[in-house]
Amino acid sequence: MLKIFKYISISLIVLATSIASAQIKFEAKVSKKRLGVNERLRVDFEMNKDGDNFNPPSFNNFMVVGGPNQSVSNSWINGKRSFSKTYSYFLAPKRQGTFTIQQATIEIDGETYKTTPVTVTVTKAVDKPKDGNNADYIASENIHLVAEISNTNPYLNEAITVVYKLYVSPNTGVSNWREIDNPKYSDFWSQNIDIKGLKVQNGTYKGEDYRYVVLRKTVLYPQKTGKLDIEPLSLDITVEVPTNRRDIFGSRLVNQVHKTVSAGNRTIKVKPLPETGKPAGFTGAVGEFDFKVITSKSELNASESLQAKVEVSGKGNLKLFELPKINMPSSLEVYEPEHSENVRTNLNGMHGSISDSYTVVPQFKGKYPIPSISFSYFDLKTESYKTVYSDEQVISVLEGPTNTSENQDITSTSGSKQRVVESNNQFAFVKTDPNLMPIKKPRFFRSLGFWSAMFLPLLAIPLAILYRRKKQERDADVFGNKIRKADKLAKKYLSEAKKALGQKEAFYVALEKALHNYLKAKLHIETSDFSKDKIQNLLLEKQVSQATIVEFVSILKNCELARYTPITQVEMEQDYEKAAKTISAIDKQIQ
Q: How is domain 287-397 classified at the architecture level of CATH?
């Protein structure tokens, strides 16, 4: 009896061991639970059985600088198979603090498994060992990203420039880079200056010889006073670090390491414009300007038209203030002005001209004075306000009716303009002799309508048969139907964006929402919380081509950047057409 109990116990232990060995495991592992803000963290999501639909956490408070890297291990030990699959990410902390890496999920054999959240503490920067043979240390000492600001204490609406330069020491190489964080310039009007090709130049950094390239040039006009932050530009760079080893031909070997560099957060202090001496008509113009009012004619006849142009030219924040309104006698009919801009932006800021062009139509004979109007601006050179005046002009209407209204003052320049026209022929357009003719009642029998009613139903039968055949052919055309369905789907999701064309912010908000709603409906997932890398991976899994994915992500980036940069109607229409084509292409390719 004792032996039987012993055998049963051993069997139960073996069975429990086999069940435990067959248990599915899915867990998160970190390289360290405490690290400096200048160090990197490796996170591994490891499973002992292959699964599908792996979803990583959002990695809040960290930047993903590498990954996901996938590795699979299969081994047989004593006839037993051991399997391991790992998704690895390399993270750089954004700031100090205690952060939790949330759960990742995966589906294995139809069941969803989740990892346990892991808590990591990020401390202040730690001193890394200065190892002359360590590639990471060499890269950190020889690669620098610098944001050079032209003026850290400007006035409100005064132009400043930010130039981003990447400095590389002569003995180090850079093979590739990508932007991780783009500055948003939320408190500035901003304009990027196009750079045609990256030119390597020689310079110095902290007194040492370096090579550098200018990556980006941006002109900023601060829109608030006080301390404003300029967000950093961050890059992930592939650095080629030479080693002491050589190949069989004697050439020095290099190690490639990934390095995250940042220009750092910069702060500028914006001065308010002085209140002393500020003119009553000042609308925010800052710079150096000329002002004039020009009329296309000084003499004309009644009912002819002339153009009166109010123009400001020079250098300054030309797009960020209002032009003064022209004053006209109330006897002149004045239409809403047409605004035009001829403005270019370089590293010195905006320069060119803006104007409002009014169409003026006189109704009566006489002389009409256009009084002088003023324009005020803040001059940065003298740090004082200046006011300039236009010349007074007179418009002579040589021929036309005479204004006989006693209450009509042709020299009045009040804002309300009501024209009274008195005439003895006010109702001349009414015809007094109608020349009416009796209408003969037509006969329906044997008329064209009679025969049409007889034979049209017979003609409709072959047309109905032909329509049915065409419909069957169309229904059988699977590829064609898929294309038509894709085009309809693109128009459906982009309808709100199309309504907002011409309204920059509303258009790009609607466009970005349409793109996310399309993915949400198509993939049955919530994409608004996903990164662009995650969206790329999802579309790749659905067998969408790389070119189409790149186009889709570029449109998402345009939606983010366009809210803070000036965009024309033509550019908005181009982005809309590009989005429609991309959605249609994804719908055709998605599996």
A: Sandwich (2.60)
